[in-house]
């Protein structure tokens, strides 16, 4: 019986296997993936429609030209790829398999020479009764529902890659003797691609991150789980600063924002609320063989010099009016410095609820001094988003803390991790850049070149643990010191990450006196004292000269260029200043500092400290001593920096910065001669006004309690140099005005070429118009007015060759304004400055020309 059942059993099993195999063959999934390229240029083509032939099932290629199609339909045998201006390509597929099919599309060069179209008059473009404008208004009306911020919660994984190369290099450049040992660095590509035929890769960075969003209370957090970047020798290149600068240049592009940040500028989005007033829109194609159907909407600026995009967007016709794909570029006439070519490709994917989210963005920009020829710099930032999940609430701890957090082991990921995690495969040139740069830095000639470049550009000569500089302070001159020679430097993190020392020594040939400075800083969090968040204690002593009321911005006091000044420049001080400061910064950008200052000041040059004795005779006072305790509270929400190993420069942004300072003078403490309290508050904010440019506004107010001589009053920031200073009064003389209570406002508006771009011929120069107004209200109370108390130091009068003196502000505010032209030679701003009040003061200038040099895009 057993022998009879065994053959029957085996036949049954065999029959079941045959049936199962047949079933799985009939219903196996067919997967087709690949990349679509231009047959001529070999460049990837985004937004190409790829579908199964004979069906409505299709998809558009992403920003990298990649596609993936899948089906269980056993009747499909082919796929087709179509794009406007190209021949449709058809390829056979194998059913039931996962296969890769790459497609190269050829241009459709069919001639239309026999068709002649003549028009008596070109039809004027108008928004009225324009279906393209009606469509874009629907997109604008549906913006809110199509943004991530519409969800209560959202989370996703993000991969980011950024790379920079020297671009458009000629064979002559490549074959120069200096590059004989560097040939392994060069990269070849199609000559029609952005960047030209030959590139020299110099930088690359990759990041993987987990991202979380919560609508209420609002929170957006990024946790960087992996980070890999090209590392240069810290003695020559500040890797942190390099990363911060590149990230500022290549920010996220959110087409749903009214204004898109690009290269420190803001460009009006084609789907901004006011876009129909600045753009022309045209319906150029409809794609009905994809689901949902798409309308191709092309757009171009009404004025090609304005900060606007041009390109195409693909709108879904499913009731969402969402952007599925976007191709953004800029016109060659745009008032944007150094940009040769710019291209941004955005791709969006459908969520489970039928709406769309950004799945990939690819931003490419080439820069050059000459927009038409010569070498330049090519950069690309690719962002890919995956695992997008909506309305999945996390614990509150997930959203707490700073907006960006770097995992402790983020830089420890090996090559295997990156190969498994990257959403795409690096090409050979990109994959080898990490190794190539490491090899480059072992070449002696490269080290020598970087050493010279560091001295020229940064002003410091590096000796490992110590840097000598800055070079622009080695020599200067002024009426008090004569020719001034100075030498100094600072330690670097090579010596220690906790201890920092800075020093200099100087000598004046006229006063024949030595000056010096010593500073020692200890980091309490084992990070650079310049790194965010700061937490350090510093002690310093300075014996040097100073001009009362001069506020220097981003420059050293003995900078050679500041030696040139208008008018009399003989009001000086000799200072002995000991400071002890503690600074503590939190991750929410709230910080506080506590300080002690022991200050001895002695008048120098034409400056005299005098009071009246009881007998009516003048008495010269040669020394004023103060001891101060101080506290500062600062809040700068969402503040960003250009972060370096030995510097930190804030990046202007739309968020305000609040600062509150309190100073307490203590009589009897280490020789202090006065009791007083001084409170100063400051608010600084940039307002972006879209196509009308941006406005920087600074407001400040202060009140001093107590009875003090005039050198301890608020001496308002004056400027007698020929450089235009944003936070100083450019036509006020040094120590011209003092106050014990004051309020001020400074407004600097940059139109970004909005007016000049509309003037024929002038618009070709790409100049930018600027207006600036500063007003100061204040005064001196009776108790601090030496006219009411002879024992107080008299306000200097008829001081210096120009007869200038010191005054208290009256009922009339000090007002000055300027009109300026910026972007001259892409670097220079020239202002005509006019003073409107207190023109009767001796030596008060009525007007002047001031210069400001700034590298900006």
From TrEMBL:
It comes from Mucilaginibacter rigui. This is Carboxypeptidase-like regulatory domain-containing protein. InterPro entries: CarboxyPept-like_regulatory, DUF5686. It holds the Pfam family DUF5686. Signal peptide: none annotated.
């Amino acid at each position: 019986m057993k022998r009879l059942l065994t053959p029957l059993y085996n036949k049954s099993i065999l029959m079941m296997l045959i049936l199962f195999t047949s079933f799985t063959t009939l219903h196996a999934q067919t997967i087709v993936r690949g990349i679509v390229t231009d047959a001529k240029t070999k460049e990837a083509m985004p937004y190409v429609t790829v579908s199964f032939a004979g069906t409505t099932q299709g998809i558009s290629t992403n920003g990298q030209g990649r596609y993936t199609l899948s089906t269980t339909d056993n009747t499909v045998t082919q796929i087709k790829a179509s794009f406007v201006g190209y021949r449709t390509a058809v390829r056979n597929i194998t059913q039931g398999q996962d296969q890769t099919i790459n497609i190269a599309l050829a241009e459709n060069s069919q001639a239309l020479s026999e068709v002649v179209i003549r028009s008596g008059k070109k039809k004027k473009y108008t928004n009225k009764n324009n279906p393209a404008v009606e469509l874009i208004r629907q997109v604008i009306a549906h913006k809110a529902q199509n943004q991530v911020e519409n969800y209560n919660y959202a989370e996703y994984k993000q991969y980011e890659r950024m790379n920079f190369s020297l671009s458009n290099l000629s064979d002559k450049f490549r074959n120069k003797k200096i590059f004989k040992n560097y040939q392994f660095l060069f990269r070849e590509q199609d000559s029609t691609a952005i960047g030209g035929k030959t590139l020299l890769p110099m930088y690359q960075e990759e990041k993987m991150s987990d991202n979380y969003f919560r609508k209420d209370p609002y929170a957006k957090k990024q946790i960087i789980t992996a980070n890999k970047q090209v590392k240069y020798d810290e003695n020559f290149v500040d890797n942190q600063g390099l990363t911060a600068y590149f990230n500022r240049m290549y920010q996220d592009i959110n087409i749903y924002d009214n204004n898109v940040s690009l290269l420190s500028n803001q460009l009006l989005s084609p789907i901004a609320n006011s876009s129909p007033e600045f753009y022309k829109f045209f319906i150029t194609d409809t794609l009905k063989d994809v689901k949902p159907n798409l309308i191709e909407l092309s757009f171009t600026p009404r004025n090609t010099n304005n900060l606007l995009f041009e390109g195409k967007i693909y709108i879904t016709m499913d009731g969402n009016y969402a952007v599925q794909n976007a191709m953004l570029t800029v016109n060659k006439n745009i008032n944007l410095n150094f940009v040769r070519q710019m291209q941004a490709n955005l791709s969006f994917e459908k969520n489970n609820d039928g709406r769309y989210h950004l799945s990939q963005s690819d931003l490419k920009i080439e820069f050059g001094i000459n927009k038409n020829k010569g070498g330049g710099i090519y950069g690309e930032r690719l962002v890919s988003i995956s695992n997008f999940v909506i309305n999945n609430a996390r614990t509150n701890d997930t959203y707490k803390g700073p907006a960006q957090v770097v995992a402790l082991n983020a830089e420890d990921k090996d090559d295997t991790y990156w190969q498994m995690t990257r959403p795409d495969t690096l090409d050979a040139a990109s994959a080898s850049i990490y190794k190539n740069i490491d090899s480059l830095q072992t070449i002696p000639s490269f080290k020598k070149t970087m050493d010279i470049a560091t001295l020229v550009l940064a002003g410091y000569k590096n000796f490992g643990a110590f840097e000598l500089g800055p070079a622009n302070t080695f020599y200067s001159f002024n009426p008090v010191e004569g020719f001034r020679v100075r030498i100094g430097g600072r330690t670097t993190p090579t010596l220690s990450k906790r201890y920092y020392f800075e020093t200099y020594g100087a000598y004046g040939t006229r006063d024949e006196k030595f000056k010096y400075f010593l500073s020692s800083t200890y980091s309490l969090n084992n990070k650079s004292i310049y790194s965010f968040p700061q937490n350090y204690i510093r002690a310093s002593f300075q014996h040097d000269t100073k001009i009362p009321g001069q506020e220097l911005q981003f420059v050293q006091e003995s900078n050679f260029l500041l030696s040139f000044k208008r008018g009399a420049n003989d009001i000086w001080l000799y200072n002995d200043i000991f400071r002890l400061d503690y600074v503590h910064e939190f991750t929410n950008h709230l910080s506080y500092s506590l300080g002690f200052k022991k200050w001895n000041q002695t008048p120098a040059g034409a400056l005299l400290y005098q009071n009246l004795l009881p007998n009516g005779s003048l008495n010269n006072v040669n020394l004023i001593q103060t001891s101060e305790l101080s506290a500062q509270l600062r809040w700068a929400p969402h503040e960003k920096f250009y972060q370096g190993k030995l510097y930190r420069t804030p990046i202007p942004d739309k968020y305000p910065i609040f600062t509150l300072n309190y100073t307490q003078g203590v009589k009897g403490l280490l020789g202090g001669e006065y009791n007083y309290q001084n409170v100063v508050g400051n608010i600084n904010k940039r307002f972006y006004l879209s196509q009308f440019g941006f406005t920087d506004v600074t407001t400040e107010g202060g009140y001093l309690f107590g009875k003090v001589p005039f050198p301890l009053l608020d001496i308002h920031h004056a400027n007698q140099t020929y450089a235009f200073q944003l936070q100083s009064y450019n036509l006020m003389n040094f120590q011209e005005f003092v106050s014990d209570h004051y309020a001020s406002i400074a407004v600097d508006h940059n139109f970004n070429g909005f007016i000049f771009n509309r003037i024929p011929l002038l618009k070709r120069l790409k100049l930018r118009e600027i207006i600036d107004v500063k007003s100061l209200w204040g005064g001196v109370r009776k108790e601090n007015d030496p006219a009411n108390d002879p024992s107080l130091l008299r306000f200097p009068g008829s001081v210096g060759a120009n007869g200038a003196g010191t005054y208290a502000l009256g009922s009339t505010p000090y007002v000055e304004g300027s009109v300026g032209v910026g972007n001259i030679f892409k670097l220079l701003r020239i202002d005509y400055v006019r003073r409107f009040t207190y023109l009767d003061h001796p030596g008060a200038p009525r007007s002047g020309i001031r210069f400001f040099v700034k590298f900006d895009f």
